[in-house]
Amino acid sequence: LISVNFALIFVMALSDSSSRIWLGYVTAEVVHRCITLCAEECLACTNRVTCPLLHYHNELNLKDKIQRYLGRVVIDLEQLFDQFILQFGWFALNRQHYIQLADIFLSVSTPEAIMYGKYITHQNERAIYGQLDVLTPSAPAYASDEIP
Predict the structure, then answer these.
(1) pLDDT exceeds cutoff 50 at 90
(2) CA Rg value for the chain
(3) In which band, very low, low, confident or very high, does the pLDDT at 17 lie, cut at 50, 70 and 90?
(4) d(C-alpha 102, C-alpha 22), whole Å
(5) What are the Cα distances from residue 61, in Å, to 31, 51, 65, 66, 88?
(6) Cβ(74)–Cβ(29) under 8 Å?
(7) Does the pLDDT of residue 145 top 90, yes or no?
(8) Do 106 and 75 contact (CB within 8 A), yes or no?
């Protein structure tokens, strides 16, 4: 059973946008590690086999990879938090609170929670993956043959 303290910490965190993005950031790292572990254990990769049909990691979908490797994922939350604050510029965040939140999150997460928890959304995925939108001037609304 989940303790009342955990439930309160988690509910409070989900109401805070920086906490939600932090959990999305942690989720992205978990998924990346699961994919990496799967590829590292692929004999075809280690033997430099060219044909994708012979690669074990190509047989598994993302959900399968998370289910197989989630229990083996190890993340240095201190280092990940440092990367997070550098990427987002949120230097005033309470380090221990966010690391504790991620530690609790990882200790209770299931493959289904990682896959379907909506910690990574269409609204935050570009920021989480470091692809910040660059504002560019919009193109003129006329065709090139209309230029005076």
Answers:
(1) yes
(2) 20
(3) confident
(4) 8
(5) 12, 18, 6, 9, 30
(6) no
(7) no
(8) yes
